[in-house]
Amino acid sequence: MIRIFITGGTFDKTYDEISGALAFEDTHLPEMLRLGRSQVEVSVRTLMMVDSLAMTETDRALIVHNCQQCEEARIVVTHGTDTMVETAAALARGVGGKTVVLTGAMIPYAFGSSDGLFNLGSALSFAQILPPGIYIAMNGQHFAWDAVRKNKQTGVFEAI
Amino acid sequence: MIRIFITGGTFDKTYDEISGALAFEDTHLPEMLRLGRSQVEVSVRTLMMVDSLAMTETDRALIVHNCQQCEEARIVVTHGTDTMVETAAALARGVGGKTVVLTGAMIPYAFGSSDGLFNLGSALSFAQILPPGIYIAMNGQHFAWDAVRKNKQTGVFEAI
Amino acid sequence: MIRIFITGGTFDKTYDEISGALAFEDTHLPEMLRLGRSQVEVSVRTLMMVDSLAMTETDRALIVHNCQQCEEARIVVTHGTDTMVETAAALARGVGGKTVVLTGAMIPYAFGSSDGLFNLGSALSFAQILPPGIYIAMNGQHFAWDAVRKNKQTGVFEAI
Amino acid sequence: MIRIFITGGTFDKTYDEISGALAFEDTHLPEMLRLGRSQVEVSVRTLMMVDSLAMTETDRALIVHNCQQCEEARIVVTHGTDTMVETAAALARGVGGKTVVLTGAMIPYAFGSSDGLFNLGSALSFAQILPPGIYIAMNGQHFAWDAVRKNKQTGVFEAI
Fold it and tell me: Hey, of B101, B117, B150, B158, which one would you mutate to test binding to chain A, going by the most A CBs within 10 A of its CB?
């Protein structure tokens, strides 16, 4: 059984047709799991629905707390890419003995040509077999939390 | 570096608008890797482009031969789901010391609402960290080649 | 008020993931009207769900009968492209004083990159303002029923 | 021959994956015409690429000038929905003897589930047969420029 925590990020951005702006409504995770015909046993909970640039220390503490307290030892966290590495560091300080994989998307799932489904398939797979630790799964790759950065120019996660 | 061998299957079916029938043209794998913003180093080769129900023993021998002979020790094979288990068995008899992951799709990638991108993200991830052996990655899960069957009623791969 | 009669055709083909073949299930028309945010008052009825190559004279008589008998004077008929011109001729012999517009698609709506939504927007618009007569609306154009043929090589409808 | 003038609006908004914000890049019109397999003879020119809330009187004068000066007597203008009615009024004051149809979208074409293709098929069809005048084509309907408003609550264009 894998726990999935939703925190928002590009993954779940939608287009609000009345305001003409980007917005967060409900998460697309269940729909994505259906589309992927996933048979992985998961339990999904939405912790927050925010742009990761707007994420506060209180938000991060809530994510850490939930990863600590949940029964599952294998966890996927969907997260905005801009501060994914910061949240991974917070998780590394606060969560031990569990496999936590953070993932996200560069293009919202709702916008058709998204990398979200690819990343979700990848993150769920890594979460099933990686040993305990905090990881980021993006671009088909996985990185230990302290060995990765997001290249802000290219949008690609790279090893450091 | 991961080697990807293409053999056809639902993954790569397209709709031929002149004949009004399903058809195989060129593989969608490179486009899918771009959409997923994959940074995994891969080398893609198309071995054949067939419906797996039409796959012959000669076809299977060709797949086995290519998996044996290629330099890479980690391989993903895209394959129709109907006889994926048979090909996995042939690979188990003929290929040793390598991690080979077969994957496919229930809905063609070209048809918008496909599970293909999810499965590709999953298969590439499993291929990077599973120990040598022959596996099937479908529905977000992975199975040893001799511990799985496709349920023809539901279209789902299940452990046996 | 516009009457929409559904007869099947590429418009409504879906991919049956268990059989791996093309199939007809329920029509996509209501979903397409929602996606287009159509505010045109319409009444939709499915007459049949067939490939137009399999359409019989009895099927055509049923279409003619329904176009004659319905209250509405403005009608859109969704139809496979291969025999659209034959059905248009049958309608011309049997239906007078009404504006009937046949339309279809080269790529199934369910397959993502379809021309169906463009053709539906076009056909509904032509049906609102063309004078009584039997027309085919394809490729953004409209043709009188006896001034058009489908070019089987290119899939394009052209004036004759 | 129909002239198409591009001015931006939701139609052409894209998601900038580096900044994570909505943006305008190049127009999607040619791609949309290809997808719709349009055979209508058109000549496309991009006049500007702006959100219609940011459109100035100078911008509107430029649109009017181009509609006056172009050779074609039938014109489609893609435009943001928020001030489409204002631009239609400016065109009514400045352009005579031509059929000008303004259209737009509530959801960007690039976001998969857009009404754009439906509206484009509709606008191109109305532009071919309506008598000279300034019209708005949205939601499958057409309105004279002075008989319509956008309902800001519902996003729907309605007759006044």
Answer: B117
Give this complex's ipTM. Answer: 0.96
Distance from the Cα of residue B47 to its chain's centroid:
12
Nearest to B107 among C15, C113, C153 (CB): C15
How far apart, in whole angstroms, are the C-alpha atoms of residue B123 and residue B130?
A: 10
**Chain C residues within an 8 Å CB radius of D81:** none
> Amino acid identity of D22?
L
| Two tokens, residue D23 | 């943006």
- Exposed / middle / buried, residue C129 (Cβ in 10 Å: 0-12, 13-18, 19+): middle
**D63-78 pLDDT per residue, tens:** 999 999 999 999 999 9
Contact flag A37-B113 (C-beta cutoff 8 Å): no
Residues 6+ apart with CB under 8 A from A126: A101, A135, A137, A142, B125, B129
Q: Which of D120, D124, D140 sits opposite C40 (nearest CB)?
A: D140
DSSP at D7: E
Classify residue A58 by its DSSP letter: H
Amino acid at C121: G
Helices (H), chain B: 29-35, 57-69, 84-94, 116-129
End-to-end Cα, chain D, rounded Å: 32
A117: CB partners within 8 A, 6+ apart: A32, A35, A36, A109, B36, B117, B118, B121
With vertex at residue B87, the alpha carbon angle to CA B83 and CA B90, rounded to the nearest 5 degrees, is 145
Instruction: Compute the distance between CA of residue C19 and CA of residue B155 in angstroms, rounded to an integer.
Output: 9
Number of Cβ pairs < 8 A linking chain A and chain D: 50
Q: Do B139 and A35 touch (CB under 8 A)?
A: no
Is residue D146 within 8 A of residue C29, CB to CB? The reply is no
Look at the block and give the residue holding tokens 């040509």: A113
The pLDDT tens digits for B110-152 are 887 789 999 999 999 999 999 999 999 999 999 999 999 999 9
Q: pLDDT tens digits, residue range C57-94?
A: 999 999 999 999 999 999 999 999 999 999 999 999 99
Question: What is the C-alpha end-to-end distance of chain A, expressed in Å?
Answer: 32
For chain C, which residues lie within 8 Å of any Cβ of chain B, measuring from their own Cβ? 10, 15, 17-18, 20-22, 51, 53, 80, 82, 106-108, 110-113, 152-153, 155
Q: Which of A13, A107, A115 to mutate to test the interface with D (most CBs of D within 10 A)?
A: A107
DSSP state for residue B54 in the 8-state scheme: G
Residue type, D94: G
Tell me if D117 and C118 make a contact (CB, 8 A cut-off).
yes
Structure tokens at D56: 């100035």
pLDDT in tens, D34-47: 999 999 999 999 99
Does this model's pTM top 0.90? My answer is yes
- Residue D12: C-alpha distances to residues D47, D57, D142 (Å): 13, 21, 21
Contact B113 A32 (CB under 8 A): no
Residues of C in contact with B20 (CB under 8 A): 10, 51, 53, 80, 82
C-alpha dihedral (B122, B128, B134, B135), degrees to nearest 10? -20
Q: B115: nearest CA in chain A? A: A36
Structural contact between residues B94 and B86, judged by C-beta atoms closer than 8 angstroms = no
Residue D84 to chain A, least CA–CA distance (Å) = 14
The pLDDT tens digits for C84-139 are: 999 999 999 999 999 999 999 999 998 877 899 999 999 999 999 999 999 999 99
